[in-house]
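Quick log. Single chain, no ligands specified.
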Amino acid sequence: MTAPGPSTAPRRVVAAMSGGVDSAVAAARAVDAGHEVTGVHLALSRNPASYRSGARGCCTIEDANDARRAADVIGIPFYVWDLSERFHDDVVEDFMDEYAAGRTPNPCLRCNEKIKFAAVLDRALALGFDAVATGHYARLVETASGVEMHRGVDDGKDQSYVLGVLDQRQLAHSLFPLGGSTKAQVRAEAAERGLLVADKPDSHDICFVADGDNAGWLREKLGDRAPNHGGDIVDDATGETLGRHEGTYGFTIGQRRGLRIGRPAPDGRPRFVLDIEPVSGTVRVGPRERLAVRKLTGVRPRWCGTPPTALRGPGVTVQLRAHGAELPAAVTVSGDEVDVELLEPAFGIAPGQAAVVYDGTRVVGSATISATDR
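-> predicted structure:
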């Protein structure tokens, strides 16, 4: 591995400032590195009052004000870019459509793909900027063949999973100034710099679900959209109908809580959601061992560099959730289909989630899970 590369030469940089501590310190570090930096806050809600507020927010008027104050302290120009229509079409509508189809999407990953490193980057380049800097915890390394993305050094904050959708062009125009630091170091630096967001809590959950009740939000948006109005909860082994539900959008593979079946399994063990059939409205439940997955298929791959044909060996892993464990795997690629054999079982893996492939700490790319098999 060579020394970190893409950020060494001075560039004109847009710093995406969410209003949190990470993006503020990232912008400050970009200035320290000699770049000509302009802070930009993304207005993503057509009605900001409907998005999260307070400590759990990330797309609110409060956050825009926090970002502006941070830019003032750093001493950089600051603007707000309204991308609310694009965000609604590419992220919010996608989230609803995926749940309506019985899949489990990751809206943060989709936001990175469609908004921060597509819409924002394209606008920045059109305006004469060279790169976009964000507060993500990941590392970029320049090699003879291009730019590699690696995990951040802080295992607890590494965000390379949600960046696994970025291609080589996007990586070449990106800066991640925090990748070599821990969260504790970033907060301490923010305090030293006099940034008022130094102790601001991290945002959580989904920014466009105002109260954090994903199922309630989906019920409001999808409740009248057939066939999502309701259906049966069925024991997968016996076929017995155990209860009714208000919509398949309220469930995800591996879910245990909130089934409201009213009685335990005959053996007393808890039941989990095993399968979701949105057309019939059937939700199938059963024991945890039925959730075990050893094979999965991914579609719509996004490669950070040259597309591989096969990846095997001790350093090859797949991550299936944003904060999930690395699982040793063997990966085979055939056109737009990615087949993954897990060398140890994973549980509760749902179509719609992203499978991000690593070779050591290097992010190879990602695919959207379309099917799983035991």
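Confidence is low (pLDDT under 50) at residues 1-5, 52-57.
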